[in-house]
Design brief:
- The protein is α+β, with helices and mostly antiparallel strands and 72 residues long.
- The chain has a single domain, classed as Alpha-Beta Plaits.
- A hairpin with a 4-residue loop joins strand 2 and strand 3.
- The longest helix has 12 residues.
């Protein structure tokens, strides 16, 4: 994610079983204020988020969508 501003936050995301889950997590993360970009991978279950959003806000958003998340 070159060219992004702010910081990158890496999250370990659990509970994703398919590409639909990946799309859902990506959409939820992109809705968090301050997020400029989000990349989510099914394997190994990681999300890399760019922008000014704090890890705690991102984790809450993912958990509210029904998945598990923690800072990597």
């Amino acid at each position: 994610m070159s060219g992004s501003t702010g910081t990158d936050v890496k999250l370990v995301v659990g509970g994703m079983a398919c590409e639909g889950c990946v799309a859902s997590v990506k959409k939820v993360l992109e809705r968090v204020p301050g997020v400029t970009a989000a990349e989510v991978s099914l394997e190994p279950g990681v999300a890399l988020v760019s922008g000014s959003a704090k890890a705690g806000e991102l984790i809450k958003a993912v958990e509210a969508a029904g998945y598990e998340a923690k800072a990597a």
